[in-house]
Amino acid sequence: MTRKDGVVNSSRTFKIILIPPQDSNDDDVSLFDAEEDASARKSRIKHPVASFFHLFFRVSAVLVYLLCEWLSSSFIAGMVAIILLLSCDFWTVKNITGRLMVGLRWWNQVDDDGKSQWVFESRKGRGRNPPSNSESRIFWLGLIICPIIWVILAFSTLISFKIKWLVSLQRGH
Fold it and tell me: How many domains does the chain have?
């Protein structure tokens, strides 16, 4: 948007749209289920490749952070590797594992008048393809535990005065 004096106003308004689940059953998939035994849990993983890559990029980024001083003397190489792994993780969670493992989708739509709208969809309960409890647990625990690990690493970096590594830790959150 351009004002009279020729100054471009770059402020944008965002509108978030939540789309309710398509089926009428409002049961959420539980994060923890004590009754589920190990054999049933193993057989319920419908998407083992998606489950593997959901954790692979996150854990690999943490391992690269922990091991990069021993493997390479280059700070830049370690930083680039961490950023690439976390970028792959973001893309995987947004486009693949969120949809397959727990039924989440989201995207941004821009209207004709330039307003940005975020659209979120979720699948709950027992529809056509209900999410399994095991995959749901893997997905949510992976999303919760890895940022906690990054926060712990950030505090240890502050305590050890390795200030240059705080930049890569900030990317890990």
Answer: 1
